[in-house]
Each structure stands twice: as C-alpha cells, then as structure tokens.
Task: structure prediction
Amino acid sequence: MSTTTHAAVDIIEREHAVVFQTYRRINVAIDRAEGMRIYDVDGRAYLDMLGGIAVNALGHGHPRIIEAIEHQIRRYMHVSNVFYQEPQVILAEQLVKASGYPRVFFSNSGAESTDGAMKIARRFGSATGRYDIIGFSGGFHGRTYGALSVMDKPLYKEGMGPFLPNTLVLPFNDVDALEARVDENTAAVMLEFLQGEGGIAEATQEFVDAIWRLKRQYGFLVIADEVQSGIGRTGDFFAFERYGVRPDVVTIAKAMGGGLPLGGILATDEAAALLEKGMHGTTYGGNPVACVAGSVVVDEVTSGLMHHVREVGEYLHGRLREIHDSFPTLIREVRGRGCMQGLVLNQDAAPFIPKLLEHGVIANATAGNVIRLVPPFVITHSDVDELHSALMMVFTAG
Ligand SMILES: Cc1ncc(COP(=O)(O)O)c(C=O)c1O
Result:
C-alpha cells in the first residue's frame, strides 16, 4: 500500500470512528476540486458528473465566486436577519427578475425550503379548513418531517413515523388517482416537474394539465420543487416552464448557492403574505457570503450559461443515445435534458458507479436502475466525450 493510499484509508477509518454513519459514501477522500475536476488525496483526478449532487453550477473554484466570497467575508460574514443586508436584496432582485415571481424568502437548504412552502400551504388552508398537502411517488423533497410526510421513500421513512397529519402521497403521472383523491380539502400539491432522486422522471403534460384543471375547480396551491431542476439546470430557468403553467410557490436551493448552503422560496404576493412577521425565519437564512455567491451564479446563468446548458445538454443526450444504441439490452432509456440526465438501465445501476470511478468519472445511482448525471453547467463537449469513453469501457466490460 502506498503512502498516499494510506492517507485515504486513514481519513476513511477516522470518519467511521467518530461520525454518524448515515451516508453511503463513495470511497474517495477529497483533496481539492477545480472546474469539472475533483482530486483525491492520492492525487487522482476525476471528471465530476455529480457536481456535488446538482450543486456546483459553475464548477469548482469559479474565480468570480471566490472573488465575491472573499470580498464579502472581509466586509462581514453573519449579522443575523435582525438587520437589512444588501447581498440578500441584490440576489432577491435578480431572482425576481429571472423568475417573474415577486417575492423571495431565503433559507439554507432544500428541505428547509420544502417545510417553509408547506407552512404557506397550511396557512392558506387553515383560513378555510382545508389541510391536505399532497406529494407524489418518486418525489424527493428532503429529510425533515414536512418533506418526508409527502414522500413515499420507505428507506428514508422506516421507523420514523408518525408523520404529519393530513399529508398523503399519490402515484406520479396518474391522472385517475389524482382526480379520485383531490377535493375541497386539498390545500396544496407539491411536485418536481422533473424528478431527480426519482430517476430523472418527467411529469407528463396530461398530468400537469389535470393538476391545473383541478386547481381551477378547488383552488388549492401548487408548489413546484425546483431544488434540483431549477436555476437553469434543464436549460430553462425552471423545469415547469415548458408546461405552460405557473405554480404559486417554488422552492429552490442547490445550484443557487454555487457551492455554499443556500435555499429559498419564490412566491406570488398572495402566497408570500400568508407568512406574517415572526411566523417564519432562520438564523442563517440568506447568509450574505452565500448570497454573493448566489448572485454570481444567477448572473452567469441568465447571461448566457443557460444557453450553453441547452446546447451541451443536447450533445450529452446524443452521446448517451449512442451508448444506448451500443448496449440496447443493458440500457432501457436516456432521460432528462440539459445538465440533468439519466441512463435508465434494465438492471441495478449501483455496481456501475465504482466501475466508472475506476475510469475516472464520478456519478451516482438513483431510483435503483438510473445512472444520474447532474454535472456543473460549465461542462464542455470534450468532458462529454470523456464520459462517453468511460461509459463505453464500463459497459463493454459488463
Ligand atoms: C428535488 C429536491 N428537493 C429537496 C431536496 C432537499 O434538499 P437538501 O438536501 O438541501 O435539504 C433535494 C435534495 O436532493 C431535492 O433533490
């Protein structure tokens, strides 16, 4: 065993000794990261097709982000939401401009945004005695009790109950089940229009149309979870845009912070007004260092990067289809768009992740049989070609 390998083993063993064992980690100990690359403590370089699980939109160590963070750290790092802070205002103004939603609340993570959105739904419903909040199978909204209550993932919920009352999960893309259950007691439905953890699975237009038909009939809120798919990842600012609908509330996080913890809720004026002074908040929400990083991300995304995502996403899709054509029995389908795509296999995807790692590519498996690709938006054609070669080698070896 070389000395460098010893460094990785040492870190891994020490982690096992002192940290809650809640994560199924990839057996790599990180030294540093730059652009599309991650380097481990053994000096190996990997192509990062996971992007910190759909976070590092501008890649690692983007000079504009570093400059903004350094500048803000020297001004101040935290003062609390007792004060007015321009970095929050600037990012909120950018988000309002990019999204068309008039109001923003800042949190620290996706799950927190989910719970905040659910509180809006409860407030909305409590005035009229309607409390049901509905999620859909395959959806992932985080690990808090609010989020878990509208998810159907047994692994995350096992032995954790009871969950929130008046919450339920209906089958995704099932119009009949929706029509049978949604009624005047429904306060809100929450969905990812393009499910991430659910295996890069898209809502059908028919399903979305049915939600809006019922919304017109019963008047409930629609909450779009754009934590993974939002801020330009699909080549549109939000995944819901191509459905021709406008949800009342949108949750965001991940890509927005450019690598720092930052989440948010976008809402109509009416929905935002449901949370009155003192009703919701968080000590760190809208941390100014995270907000200045977020401002760089939103600026880059809205001034050209989103077009790149669309273009490189089409190239990625084409190359994945070539792989599909080469291995038609192993691969069932290529799904998704932009920097959010998945290779759907006819078998468990997990065994292919360490094999890809051996060929220098980091990706992960989700929904059992899907290899998920959520790279930074700055991915190039040559990065895609590198991924293609690694996938060809891995699937050829079987
Ligand atoms: C669609 C979606 N919503 C919510 C979350 C939860 O975000 P966080 O892990 O920041 O709490 C995730 C995380 O993967 C997600 O993909």
